[in-house]
Amino acid sequence: MTELLNGKQIALDIKKEICEEIEKIKHKKKRLPHLGIILSGNNVESIIYVNRKIKECNNIGISCSLVELPKHSSEKTILQEIHKMNNHPLIDGFIIQLPIEPHINVDNLILSINPEKDVDGFHPANFGKMALNMNTFFPATAYGIIKLLQKYKIKISGKHTVVIGRSRIVGLPISILMSRKHFLGNSTVTLTHTYTNNLYVYTKQADIIIVAVGIPGFLTGNMIKKGAILIDVGINKINKEMKTMLKGDIDFDSVFGKASYITPVPGGIGPMTIMMLIKNTIKAAYKRLSSN
Ligand code: GUN
After folding, report:
1. Which residues are annotated as catalytic?
2. Is the beta carbon of 98 within 6 A of some atom in ligand 1?
3. Which atom of ligand 1 is least distant from the CA of 46?
């Protein structure tokens, strides 16, 4: 039997908790948390994700400012917008929606974000703190995966986790979070990537597999052991029978019945990510309020 990890429902539960927190802030007549988003270029997926983020901020009642920059904007122009967000008195935290166009050096952008406002947790100062088990912002998708496993009371400690993909957005941070010395960690992690030989040798041994590669149906039933817990981070658009559909990085049909748990696509990790970003923004706002 395979049970679905219903990220959509858990995200709704978290949203309810966040709304209660926002009500308390309103009651105290304090300023509402404010998220900034920089969107450069016209990547269709990015536009959809950003619109979802804005919509959730509006639903929850926190402020959100979007800066849209045209395709081919220069690195200098984006850096200027980052500088403005860093110095904006009302913006508590902000993100630069990724991916960014290839002529831009992403590292330069991330390094120029004030770590106190880096609600993506991508700045090396925050990434380092995360690795060292210090208090910081966790990258939203990785944080969402941990929260979902926690809500379903799935034991991570002592388990063998195989992460497929080592992106800064998902693979790298989730491998750190799963392995750190913390009750929501303590897993033995194998981080695999394009250069891993015989991937199935690792996935066959895994208790938990987290797939973030952006290839539809990449992980198949013959690559997993019975009872494995599967986390699918992929959201791939495919055309099937004249319709556009979303498909994850896991071949759902071939693992269903063999895995013990799986996150569906859509309705798995995606909704969790947005809630974790909003949680990070509220955390940044509290920090700024307490230091003023
Ligand atoms: N693109 C896809 N996921 C993310 C994310 O979590 N943060 C940013 N900044 N860009 C993304």
Report:
1. 53, 97, 120
2. yes
3. 1
Query: What pLDDT does residue 28 have?
Result: 93
Q: Read off the DSSP letter of residue 250.
A: B
Specify the fold of 29-115: Rossmann fold (3.40.50)
Nearest CA to ligand 1 atom 9: 97
Cβ(174) – ligand 1 distance below 6 Å: no
Give the distance, in angstroms, between the CA of residue 59 and the centroid of all CA atoms in the same chain.
20
Domain ranges of the chain: 29-115, 140-269
CATH of domain 140-269: 3.40.50.720
Q: Where are the beta strands (DSSP E) in the chain?
A: 3-4, 34-40, 63-69, 93-96, 160-164, 188-192, 208-211, 229-232, 236-240, 243-247, 261-262
For the chain, the average pLDDT equals 97
pLDDT digit string, tens, across residues 97-114: 999 999 999 999 999 999
CA 1 to ligand 1 centroid distance, Å: 33
Smallest CA separation from ligand 1 atom 1, residue: 98
* pLDDT category of residue 58 using cuts at 50, 70 and 90: very high
With a pLDDT cut of 90, the percent of the chain lying above it is 95
Answer for the pair 249, 232: CB distance below 8 angstroms, yes or no.
Answer: yes
Q: 123-175: per-residue pLDDT in tens?
A: 999 999 999 999 999 999 999 999 999 999 999 999 999 999 999 999 999 99
What tokens appear for 272 in the block? 């969790």
Q: Do domains 29-115 and 140-269 have the same CATH topology?
A: yes
* Ligand 1 atom with minimal separation from the 140 CA: 6
Q: How far is the CA of 52 from the centre of ligand 1 (A)?
A: 12
Inform me whether the pLDDT recorded for 290 exceeds 90.
Answer: no
Which ligand 1 atom lies nearest to the CA of residue 98?
10
